[in-house]
Amino acid sequence: MSNNKKTKREPLHEVNNVVKKAKRQNREEKQKNQGDTVIKWIFGVLIVLAIAYMVWTMIAV
To answer: In angstroms, rounded to a whole number, what is the distance separating the alpha carbons of residues 27 and 3?
Structure first.
C-alpha cells in the first residue's frame, strides 16, 4: 500500500449525521400528513354527530 493514493473521505459520523437528518425530516413530513388526516376525520365525525343530534332533537320535541 502506498501513501500516495490516499483519497479523502468524509468521516463516517458526518455521513451518518446527514442520513439521520434526512430520515428525521421524512418522518416529520409523514407525521404532519397523518396528523392532518386525523384532524379532518375528527372534525368530520363531530359535524356528523352535531347534525344527528339536531335531527334527534327536532324529532323528540
So the answer is: 42
